[in-house]
Design goal:
CATH superfamily of the largest domain: Glycerol-3-phosphate (1)-acyltransferase
Helix content: 55-70%
Strand order of the largest sheet: 1-7-6-2-5-3-4
CATH class of the largest domain: Alpha Beta
CATH topology of the largest domain: Glycerol-3-phosphate (1)-acyltransferase
Order of helices and strands: HEEHEHEHEHEEHHHHHHHHHHH
Radius of gyration: 25 Å
Structural class: alpha/beta
Strand content: 5-15%
Number of helices: 16
Length: about 450
């Protein structure tokens, strides 16, 4: 691991930053975000989106970070050079090498300790693997043991920081993501702990830290219910950001823990929210469309609407020209049978990162060779800008569709949905009041 950032690594980081900003409609970064001069810090994140997760952490932090990755990734053609440029560290997992000995990763731990000792930063996913669970899985002790080894080797100013990753639809192109940087913990503040005792303490801190940053559920149904309640309450506050959704969701989770499973208020709220969202699905609309009365119009949105109309011809051009590279990532996901797993976005992002630039390059070359100079310049400009115009429309179309389907039955459908929404909010308010009373008791 290099002590300075190689120019190629800087370029690669920028490429992945642009790719992430293209794949996701928005990336919200909040909390104690690390600055450029941060060093000797171990970052630990939850892991639900395969290779997308390290890309998000590495590209949202201002300081260089070397990710720890499973050794089998180096066996994927074309990926090994990128991992080496990113200064990634291979680690052998028992599931990949059942016969590995306890000393197989000693060299890796020593290397990481030296990197931290020298002022470098490390990213690790203490759950051990990317997964599809609605909650954190049991944390491994690797992060704690790495810091304990670094401290034993004489490293000073060691720090550890939890990073929470939240996705509204992790498998969907142009969805949203939230990156939450938790409080920084100085290893020196943990007292005289050494070795296994220090590793255990750090693991406990990371477990508590990560659980305090993300919204969890015992089952997917339970988590979906929490997220829907958070969405409703966020809409009432006119804050639809993922930061607000995350904060409200964690409060909902805490309130839910105070109430018994058989509490009538909880059952009433659960049933009301479930019924409302089922009705939204049948009406093919969204909560925001219902909240806004089916119009979705606000004066502040006028410039955005005018922009969309202005770029519509360019968006249509891009939608036609880039149809094939847009569909190929979906076909790749279907072929790998990973349509609803933690690997979906990794396959989509990887395929798109190769196909779209290549397709644009081929189009530009054809235009330059076959068209008159003026027409060639115009065509190349359209080829390079039309995908972004198409993305602007893709981001807006779901909301327009929500409004369209709601307006089809404006007389009765909107009134019915608003009634269900009011009932759900009333049930939530009752359960919330009960939880607050129990908390204050």
């Amino acid at each position: 691991m290099a002590s300075s950032v190689h120019p190629v690594r800087r370029l690669l980081t920028q490429v992945f930053r642009m790719a992430a900003r293209t794949y996701f409609r928005s990336i919200e970064v909040v909390g104690d975000v690390p600055v450029a001069n941060v060093g000797s810090r171990l970052f630990a994140s939850n892991h639900v989106n395969a290779l997308v997760d390290p890309i998000l952490v590495v590209t949202t932090a201002a300081c260089p970070i070397s990710p720890v990755a499973k050794s089998t990734l180096w066996n994927i053609p074309g990926l090994a050079p990128l991992l080496d440029i990113a200064d990634a560290v291979p680690i052998v997992r028992r599931r990949d090498a059942p016969n590995k000995s306890a000393t197989d990763n000693d060299e890796v731990f020593e290397r990481i300790a030296g990197h931290l000792h020298g002022g470098g930063n490390i990213l690790i996913f203490p759950e051990g693997t990317s997964h599809n669970e609605p909650h954190l899985v049991a944390l491994r002790s690797g992060a704690g043991r790495m810091l304990a080894r670094a401290k034993a080797d004489g490293a000073r100013d060691l720090e550890v920081q939890a990073v929470g990753l939240e996705f509204d639809e992790r498998n969907v192109f142009r969805s949203r993501v939230l990156v939450v940087y938790g409080p920084v913990v100085r290893v020196a503040d943990l007292g005289d702990l050494e070795g296994d005792a220090l590793a255990e303490r750090i693991t406990e801190l990371l477990d508590a830290g990560l659980r305090g940053l993300v919204v969890e559920g015992q089952t997917w149904e339970a988590r979906v219910l929490v997220t829907r309640v958070a969405e409703l309450l966020g809409a009432e506050l006119e804050d639809t950001s993922l930061e607000a959704w995350n904060a409200i969701g964690r409060r909902v989770k805490a309130a839910r823990a105070l109430l018994r499973d058989d509490d009538a208020l909880v059952t009433e709220a659960s049933d009301a929210v479930t019924e409302y969202y089922a009705a939204l699905g049948e009406a093919r609309t969204s909560d925001l469309a219902v909240r806004d009365g089916g119009t979705g119009y606000r004066p502040a949105r006028l410039p955005s609407l005018l922009f969309l109309l202005a770029v519509l011809p360019l968006a249509l051009f891009g939608a036609v020209v880039y149809t094939l590279p847009y569909q190929v990532p979906r076909l790749v996901v279907r072929a790998t049978k990973e349509e609803s797993s933690d690997l979906t976005s990794t396959y989509k992002l990887g395929a798109g990162l190769v196909l779209f630039p290549l397709w644009a390059l081929v189009g530009c070359v054809i235009a330059a060779l076959t068209l008159p100079p003026g027409a060639a310049v115009a065509c190349i400009a359209a080829l390079l800008t039309s995908p972004f115009a198409a993305l602007a429309w893709q981001d807006r179309l779901p909301r327009l569709a929500d409004t369209f389907w709601l307006l089809l039955g404006r007389g009765t459908r909107l009134a019915h949905l608003r009634g269900l929404r009011a009932r759900a909010l009333d049930a939530i308010a009752k359960a919330r009041a009960r939880a607050e009373a129990l908390e204050g008791a």
